[in-house]
Design a protein that fits this description.
With about 240 residues, the protein is an alpha/beta fold. It has 2 domains: about 200 residues, Alpha-Beta Barrel (TIM Barrel); about 35 residues. It is globular, with a radius of gyration of 19 Å. The structure holds zinc ion.
Length: about 240
């Protein structure tokens, strides 16, 4: 039995669709069949890198979306920039995980903020960013015309996503909150076009329950914090023994 949210289960999903996995940039309104793999990084760049390695070993290219306003990780630390560059080296795409929760519902405000966040990521990575996914997209932003996000690829544009409760053409799968609220991608589906949103934070080698996974995310972050303290604070060792 394959454990839920284990890397083995993830591999099974990818292998099921491998032949039709395409990149966002290759899709146009005439494309008849596609499976888009999108990774939104919410909490851990380490876990994103692990996923990027798996995708590479399975011979696929996918997209990883990074937040620049996260309270959970600093995408711009030397360590994290190195990891993001490793993801690029594995032939994947990096995009912006666009944070909009604080924005007023006005096109011009969204556009200015988008340019700002894209620029920050471009400067940090030293390369152009061509795509974005919206973090926790509110309805008002999903109903916006795609033109406001131009020239960037917006993963929620109607080429890749149908803004309906019951889509007729493009199916959407998402593992948000450790559950598949729109169905599981392994189950039979009648769609020829679909997008699978994955959060690397939810997945692990052994496959954990929601609670176990949260505990392990906290533990990983704590270890990172301890090692940063140890690195930056001369007398840290005096009070805390090194632990792994
Ligand atoms: Zn998100």
């Amino acid at each position: 039995m394959i454990k839920k949210f284990s890397y083995n289960e993830y591999r099974k999903i990818i292998l099921k669709y491998k032949k039709i996995i395409k990149d966002f940039s290759k899709i146009n309104k005439f494309t008849k069949t596609f499976c888009l793999i999108r990774h939104d990084i919410e909490f851990s760049i380490d876990r994103a890198l692990r996923m990027a390695k798996i995708d590479n070993s399975l011979g696929i290219k996918s997209s990883f979306f990074v937040q620049v306003k996260s309270d959970c990780y600093n995408a711009f630390s030397d360590e994290n920039i190195k990891k993001l560059k490793q993801i690029i080296k594995l032939k994947h795409y990096i995009g912006l995980h666009f944070y909009v929760s604080n924005l007023k519902k006005k096109d011009s405000i969204v556009q200015v903020e988008l340019k700002k966040q894209i620029k920050i990521l471009e400067l940090a990575l030293g390369r152009k960013i061509d795509r974005l996914s919206i973090h926790r997209p509110p309805k008002w932003i999903l109903s916006k015309k795609n033109s406001i996000f131009k020239p960037y690829i917006n993963t929620y544009s109607n080429l890749y996503f149908e803004f309906k409760k019951n889509p007729t053409e493009i199916k959407y799968y998402a593992d948000s909150n450790h559950r598949w609220n729109y169905g599981h991608p392994i189950d039979v589906n009648k769609f020829k076009k679909f997008q699978i949103l994955l959060h690397p934070d939810e997945w692990s080698q052994k496959g954990m329950s929601e609670k176990e996974n949260l505990i392990s995310l906290i533990k990983e972050e704590k270890l990172n914090f301890i090692s940063s303290l140890d690195k930056e604070y001369k007398t840290f060792k005096k009070y805390f023994k090194k632990r792994k």
